[in-house]
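Posting for a labmate who doesn't have an account.
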Amino acid sequence: MLRSSIFILVLLITPSLFLGASAEEIVELVNKKSCALSRSLSLSEVKDHAGIIFLGKFVNSEMVENSGSLKRIALKFTVKEPIKGLNSSVTELTLYQWANLENHFLELDKNKDYTFCFYAPSPNSGLSSLVGGKQGILP
């Protein structure tokens, strides 16, 4: 039942992925999409899935008050070099992440530059997250 629910959800969200695909290929695609955080991604996969990539420093994270039923964390960064998905004039960036996701930023050296790879923020919630979890932070 769960697998068919996931299949239906993914099919509704991304129909172009499945055009002309066999049932076996569709199940394989669903498994890859639903297990992305449980397996290592190649650098190419991280780059391809990212909507925002930049070189910069993590500044801090703060719980967002009055965010409704969806608890959010504001992640603040300084941007040294926008690489993908950002205007070249952006020097500070705040992205919002679901508060229940693991916060991989607390262990970062705030004096060191990292390359951050985020999914594009959702048009509905405005939330984003690192591509592949901690794999989306490149030293």
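Reply:
Got it, the structure tokens are right above this. Strands lie at 52-63, 72-84, 92-98, 114-118, 137-138.
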